[in-house]
């Protein structure tokens, strides 16, 4: 007999609720799978705004910094449809020196909360020169402290 091991999901650092829009559905009236990746990015951007930060910043030297994705995945267990109320729970699984590993849980809220999908995303902090060259970097202490506080709450 094979024993299933469940990975413990940390408490959410942030949740975002919204309705499913008609434009997010396919011909069957179900949210197209690709929109879950957009939902992850929406939740991440809203999370950073709540922290008083941005996922993209201009630097005094003319360069830009941001958090490009290095890995994303999503698995689905139930459909979402037009006008369903959706809750996106963002969890920080790990903070690394230059990266954040997120877990996302997607819930249809009515008639009762139902987990409809699970996803994950790893982002790397990077600096983009004026010429467009990208190099990994270490985020500011201020940003890192905010992320650590959010993860630990």
How would you sum up this structure, described in words?
The chain has 153 residues and is of the alpha+beta class. The protein has a single domain (14-152), classed as Thiol Ester Dehydrase, Chain A (Roll). Helix content is 19%, strand content 38%. The protein is built from 2 helices and 9 strands, in the order βαββββββββα. It has helices at 35-51, 141-152; strands at residues 14-19, 56-58, 64-66, 69-76, 85-95, 99-108, 114-124, 126-128, 134-136. The strands form 2 sheets. Strands 1-5-6-7-4 form a 5-stranded antiparallel β-sheet. Strands 2-3-8-9 form a 4-stranded antiparallel β-sheet, with no helix packed on it. Strand 6 (99-108) and strand 7 form a beta hairpin. It is globular and about 50 Å long. The model has no long low-confidence stretch (mean pLDDT 92).
Reconstruct the topology from this structure:
Elements: E1 14-19, H1 35-51, E2 56-58, E3 64-66, E4 69-76, E5 85-95, E6 99-108, E7 114-124, E8 126-128, E9 134-136, H2 141-152
Antiparallel strand pairs: 1-5, 2-3, 3-8, 4-7, 5-6, 6-7, 8-9
CATH architecture designation: Roll
Residue-averaged pLDDT: 92
Total domain modules: 1
**What is the gyration radius calculated from CA atoms?**
17 Å
CATH superfamily: Hotdog Thioesterase
Give the helix tally: 2
Order of helices and strands: EHEEEEEEEEH
Q: Structural class of the secondary structure composition?
A: alpha+beta
Which word captures the global form? globular
Q: Which class in CATH terms?
A: Alpha Beta
CATH topology: Thiol Ester Dehydrase, Chain A
Strand composition percent: 35-45%
- Give the CA-CA distance, first to last residue: 38 Å
Q: Low-confidence parts lasting 5 or more residues at pLDDT below 50?
A: none
Characterize the main sheet. Answer: 5 strands, antiparallel
Q: Name the strands of the widest sheet in spatial order.
A: 1-5-6-7-4
Share of helix, binned = 10-25%
